[in-house]
Amino acid sequence: MLELLLTTYVFCYHFQLDDPLIQLVEDYKWINFFDFDWRLGIDGLSIGPILLTGFITTLATLAAWPVTRDSRLFHFLMLAMYSGQIGSFSSRDLLLFFIMWELELIPVYLLLSMWGGKKRLYSATKFILYTAGGSVFLLLGVLGIGLYGSNEPILNFETSANQSYPVALEIIFYIGFFLAFAVKSPIIPLHTWLPDTHGEAHYSTCMLLAGILLKMGAYGLVRINMELLPHAHSIFSPWLVIVGTMQIIYAASTSSGQRNLKKRIAYSSVSHMGFIIIGIGSITDTGLNGAVLQIISHGFLGAALFFLAGTTYDRIRLVYLRDGRNSYPNAKNIHNVQYLFDGFPCITGHERFCFRTDSLFWNNYQPKISFNAKILITFVMAIGMILTPIYSLSMSRQMFYGYKLFNAPNSYFFDSGPRELFVLISIFLPVIGIGIYPDFVLSLSVDKVEAILSNFFIDSFHE
User: Fold this and answer.
1) Where residue 314 falls among pLDDT bands split at 50, 70, 90?
2) Of 187, 189, 282, 284, nearest to 238 (Cα)?
3) Which residue has the higher pLDDT, 257 or 100?
4) Residue range 269-281: average pLDDT?
5) Which residues lie below 8 Å from residue 52, measured CB to CB, with a gap of 6+?
6) What pLDDT score was predicted for residue 349?
7) DSSP label at residue 191
8) 3-state helix, strand, coil in the chain (%, to 5)
9) Separation of alpha carbons 273 and 381, rounded Å
10) pLDDT attached to residue 70
11) What is the DSSP string of 17-66?
């Protein structure tokens, strides 16, 4: 809590919103033998995820209050995960970025394998195999960029952004980084670890996974693939739009068929990440700003939905939707809050749909996507928007009015307590604020987005 307050104070009084350059810089010699530096800094692209990380971690700590078995170790691992995530968002050195990227994997594995469900070891093993496999490609890309064209490694983000590569080599670097970030985002077909991980993890861990960890993949796509490798990104961007469109429909359709409550929410997260992928692939200020907005808004929504799923499990010890009919006869707060958060994806959803549609139709930088293809993509995105309330309301119906009676005395169930209401209201307020006034989030990144996109248009002009 104290660290969140300090972060908020620094943001309010020491961060300049209209400055696209790196601020609050730390630059120290780290490993003299290899000439590596401890290089940290914050800009408009990273400040939003950093504030989101501090906020969601604080609420996840409160959500973990019922954990009694090795609670000190549990909270230590949550804070270690928090350190890795903050380090990834603020790193200005490729090697430091990789180390922080790996640092948060170990706490997640331990949190899942020690406090997970019945299949926790299977899910933890699957998680570490997928993410560690993707990290191999990340390490190869970091070493390739750092060692290219110089006897000494050059790992500074600013220097690497000004480096030019042969087209074939840049494409190889791009594919390596993309595979690493596609696992973490996740992007189909590298998404299968996510439902199993969410289905078995404690709900406070799920809040961190859905609210922050998935956003690290999208952040990496913008920070490295888009900013450091613009030419390769312009080549692959139409395919990103196509993959994102397919992901929206596939994951939304799959979500409706899941009986496990947390797996259904996990697939909804995969579907919503498709909108972010489309925004990143659009190569427009409108689309990229919309992707940044969706990163923040979905971070709140994903954390809230998994917290609600966890409070449900605390009461009835069931995660299957059709087993919970009439389980909350006197829990009016749970009913009301659940229906409110079912509607929140639609509040921010209309905005993200408008952002993606506008970016597709007004993007003159991508002649590879024809007008008819843009019409088709927009139509598919609209279907995805329609599917969102369908599986959300279906989830609530099966939770509260399912097909199978739960044979337990009604007196066992109790409504939301002060701690739970505080967590939900804390998420409720910023979500409403983003839905009503998204310009606040957009003002954080608009200048940095323009700076990133200027590389594409400069390259296009020279060509």
Assistant:
1) low
2) 282
3) 100
4) 88
5) 211, 212, 215, 295, 296, 299, 300
6) 47
7) T
8) 75, 5, 20
9) 12
10) 83
11) TT--S-EEEEEEEEETTTTEEEEEEE-HHHHHHHHHHHHHHHHHHHHTTT
